[in-house]
Structure formats: C-alpha cells, structure tokens
Amino acid sequence: MTGVVGGPPVTKELLEVSNTFSTSGDQTLIAAPTTQSRIVITHIVIQNTTTTSATFLLKRGSTQFFAMLCEVQGKGIAWRLDAGREYRLPPKTALVLNLSAAVAFNVTIWYFLE
Questions:
Q1: What is the CA radius of gyration of the chain?
Q2: CA trace torsion 45, 100, 32, 36 (10° rounding)
Q3: Is 21 left (phi over 0), alpha (psi -120 to 50) or beta?
Q4: From the centroid of its chain, how far is CA 83?
Q5: Domains along the chain?
Q6: Over the stretch 53-71, which tens digit does the pLDDT of each residue have?
Q7: What CA–CA distance (Å, rounded) separates 93 from 77?
Q8: How crowded is the C-beta side of 91, counted as CA atoms within 13 Å?
Q9: In terms of pTM, does the model score above 0.85?
C-alpha cells in the first residue's frame, strides 16, 4: 500500500486474514499487536455462506463497533476504506468477530500495522 501524507510516498506492508468462521461467540480475527502498534483496516469482506439467519458483530477488543443481521445466504458487507479514511483500532487492541449462531461466514480483512 502506498500513500502520501504530507511528504514523500510511504509504503506499508498490507497484511490479510481470510478464513471461514463457524463457531458462535467471540473469535479473534487479528491478535492485538504486542508493541504500541495499532491495527489499521483497509478492506473488510464478511458474508453469510448458509441459509440460516445470523448476526455478526465486529469488536475492537471487547467493544462492539459494528453489527449486522444476515438473514439470507450471501448477505454481508464489502467495504474498501480509502487512504486517510481507514479504520484504526486503539493501540494493542485485537480485532474480534462475534457470531450469534454456529453458521459459516467467510471473512477477509486487509490491514496494516502502524
């Protein structure tokens, strides 16, 4: 990922987590950085792959910041957060997914650490 923030171009290593999650309750998508670093999310794709209705929550640590009910197969979100408008978690905080039921959701997150 490359961007300009008041100076020369800066290159950040773009990381990815991509998996199918199907356990109800909290599941850590990205572990909390051990340094003062923070997770900066650039893309989020989450999709219900079943015909069973379920709600997913996204949390920064234990604090919810997004919720969506996915009533049908294929429902979900696909967000691209432009440079300068990425979602920044607090330092040393994990990104957590919570599923209301044990149904399969495909999840892909692109992010970098700063």
A1: 15
A2: 80
A3: beta
A4: 16
A5: 12-113 (2.60.120.340)
A6: 999 999 999 999 999 999 9
A7: 22
A8: 5
A9: yes
CA angle 55, 67, 51 (to 5 degrees): 25
Q: What's the pLDDT tens digit per position in 69-106? A: 999 999 999 999 998 899 999 999 999 999 999 999 99
Q: What is the 3-state secondary structure (H, E, C) of the chain?
A: CEEECCCCEEECCCEEEEEEECCCEEEEEECCCCCCCCEEEEEEEEEECCCCCEEEEEEECCEEEEEEEECCCCCEEEEECCCCCCEECCCCCCEEEEECCCCCEEEEEEEEEC
Give the CA count within 13 Å in the CB-facing half-sphere of 13. 2
Provide the pLDDT for residue 3: 42
